Structures are given as C-alpha cells and as structure tokens.
C-alpha cells in the first residue's frame, strides 16, 4: 500500500477497511510521492520499488500537492514516483472503467437520457509517448519527444481487443502526427490478423472528445496513446457525476498490477474527513478481481457501493453531506 499525499492516506485507510471485510490480505505500507520526497529526497526509493515488485498487487492513494510544485527540472516531483513505479513494474496498460450508475444520473453534468446505459472502458497506453520521451530545456525553447514502437502499440491494442464486448474505438491524430499514422497501421493489422470478430472504428482525438459528451453510451472500449488517454479518461470520468467515483487498474505482464482512484490528491480537502472514498472502494474491487483473482469478493464490493448509493448515500462531491467515515460505514453495512 502506497498512501501517498493529500487525501491519499484517508482513502487508502478506508479502502483497507473494505478489503479486510471480504478477504484476508497481508498489507505492507510504504511512503511514496511527496511524502517520500520529505523523508528521503526522492519520490520513490529503490526499496519501495522492490517491495512493489515482490507484492501480489499494489494499492495507491494519490500523489502531489502545492508543497512540491516546481518548474525546476532538477528538483524532485511526486509524479516522478508514479511514473517510476509504472515503468519499474512494466505497467503498460491503464484500464479505466466508466459506468453511469442509475442512482447518480442526476449528479452528472449531462442529461440523464444522454448518459443512460453508458458502460465503457478506456484503455490507455501508459509507458510510452510524449510523457516518457527525451526532454530538452534551454532559456529559449523546450521540447518533449513523442516516440512509439510497433511492439508498444501491439501489446496495448491486444488488451483492448480482448476486453471488448462488441467494438473497439481506436483514437489517434493520424491526420497530423506520424506516431498516430503508425498507431493506426498497427491497429488495423492486429485487428485483421487476430481479432476480426470485433468491430473496429477509428476516431481522431478531437472528434472522440466531442463524442464522449454527445453520446457516451455508443462506446464500448476506447484505446489510445498515453497523453490522449490521460485527457479523455478524465473527461469520461465526469459522465458519472464526479471524478471521485472512478477507479483504475494499471497492468503489465507477469508482475503485480497497480490499483488507484483517478481523482488525485485533492490537497484543498485533505485532513478534513470529507473525501469521497468510493473510487478507492471500486479500485479495491479491481484489485480483488485483476490482482488477486477473487471475482466473488470484487462483485460484492461493487454491489455494496451500488446499494449504498441507491439507499441515498451522497458524499459532498455528489451533492450530499456524507464524509469519508460515513460513506465507508454505509458500504460496509451492505457487505
């Protein structure tokens, strides 16, 4: 467990209460992100990465905050820990399920008839692209290199095709970017050779951004590169009414997966006991299913969250008054 910063320790503590209610799991806790910078001068130590590699799964709270904000490339940033653990564990596939829960339709900024039936999965490539390319900075210019290899594209699109029930939407910018042209060529080949039974469509990233708002229920699985996926998955999160409802799983090859809510560290509400822990609970469900192979327990957690919401549970970000502890107790009651 890597509680991290901001509301991270609060929601991970709540998540462990839910995890303990359905499974017997040994948990090791380690400092990470800004907390690790304060303690060790870097966002993740070699010892913490080794502990993650030795685990069956990694549960992360959140990292970052204004305390560690800097534009000095020589200074450590909490996000370096996140990028480092993804790279160190070979976590190339980020899965973000987005489901419109009937009890929360009114909380969405979109009309109910527009979001009804939405049940999609964003599959984001996680270890390539512009975030990991070579970076340069001088007094007069800056650059970030965007690189993708055929192998990197093949492995992420295979994850998407295997997850699809009816259709994969591949998102790129092939009308402008050479990396996107390669992306589209590889997607077409993998589809034709390995997954011809799955419907495939291509969307430019700007069109995909509009379609997510106009008709989110049309999507099944969206697969895209690192930066586009970062943006589109947060946009899709708002379909549910709050980014505080969205879990994620980052998976690789043989090693452990990383499971975390997508909401970030929210330093403005840290320590006040009002953070929404539901995304963490749903991340625990993904950990149970994808990390530990405990499908029944995962389904029980997801059902308990749905039932608590149907019974009227609302945290502040959902227009209610329930704090972290009250939300946790409501879900535990249904377990």
Descriptive report:
The mean pLDDT is 94. The protein is globular and about 50 Å long. Helix 1 (8-22) runs parallel beside helix 12 and helix 8 (205-214) packs parallel to helix 9 (226-237). The chain is built from twelve helices and eleven strands. The protein is an alpha/beta fold and 335 residues long. It has two domains: 1-94 and 255-335, Isopropylmalate Dehydrogenase (3-Layer(aba) Sandwich); 109-240, Isopropylmalate Dehydrogenase, CATH 3.40.718.10. The strands form two sheets. The chain has a nine-stranded mixed beta sheet, sandwiched between helices. It has a two-stranded antiparallel sheet with strand order 5-6. It has helices at 8-22, 34-40, 46-54, 79-88, 112-115, 150-163, 178-194, 205-214, 226-237, 278-291, 295-310, 324-334, and strands at 2-4, 57-62, 93-99, 119-125, 135-137, 142-144, 167-172, 199-204, 221-224, 247-251, 257-261.
Topology at a glance:
Layout (H helix, E strand, L loop, with lengths): L1 E3 L3 H15 L11 H7 L5 H9 L2 E6 L16 H10 L4 E7 L12 H4 L3 E7 L9 E3 L4 E3 L5 H14 L3 E6 L5 H17 L4 E6 H10 L6 E4 L1 H12 L9 E5 L5 E5 L16 H14 L3 H16 L13 H11 L1
Parallel strand pairs: 1-2, 2-11, 4-9, 7-8, 7-9
Antiparallel strand pairs: 3-4, 3-10, 5-6, 10-11
């Amino acid at each position: 467990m890597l509680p991290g910063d901001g509301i991270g320790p609060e929601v991970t503590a709540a998540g462990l209460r839910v995890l303990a209610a359905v499974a017997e799991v040994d948990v090791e806790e380690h400092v990470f992100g800004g907390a690790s910078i304060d303690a060790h001068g870097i966002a993740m130590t070699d010892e913490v990465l080794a502990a993650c590699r030795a685990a069956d799964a990694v549960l992360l709270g959140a990292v970052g905050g204004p305390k560690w904000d800097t534009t000095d490339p020589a200074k450590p940033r909490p996000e370096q820990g996140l990028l480092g653990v993804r790279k160190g564990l070979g976590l190339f596939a980020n899965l973000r399920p987005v489901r419109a829960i009937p009890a929360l339709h009114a909380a969405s900024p979109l009309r109910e008839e527009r979001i009804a039936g939405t049940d999609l999965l964003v599959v984001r490539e996680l270890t390539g692209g512009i975030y990991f390319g070579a970076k340069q900075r001088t007094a007069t210019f800056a650059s970030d290199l965007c690189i993708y290899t055929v192998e990197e594209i093949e492995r992420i699109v295979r994850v998407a095709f295997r997850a699809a029930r009816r259709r994969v939407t591949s998102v790129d910018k092939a009308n402008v970017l050479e990396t996107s042209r390669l992306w589209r060529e590889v997607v077409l080949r993998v589809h034709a050779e390995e997954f011809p039974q799955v419907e495939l469509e291509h969307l430019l990233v700007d069109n995909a951004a509009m379609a997510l708002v106009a008709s989110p229920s049309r999507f099944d699985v969206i697969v895209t590169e690192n930066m586009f996926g970062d943006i589109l998955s947060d946009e899709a999160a708002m379909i549910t009414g709050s980014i505080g409802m969205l879990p994620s799983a980052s998976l690789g090859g043989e090693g452990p997966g990383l499971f975390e809510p997508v909401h970030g560290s929210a330093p403005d509400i840290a320590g006040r006991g009002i953070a929404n822990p539901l995304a963490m609970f749903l991340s625990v469900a993904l950990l149970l299913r994808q990390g530990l192979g405990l499908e029944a327990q995962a389904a029980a957690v997801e059902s308990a969250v749905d039932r608590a919401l149907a019974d009227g549970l609302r945290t502040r970000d959902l227009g209610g008054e329930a704090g972290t502890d009250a939300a946790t107790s409501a879900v535990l009651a249904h377990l």
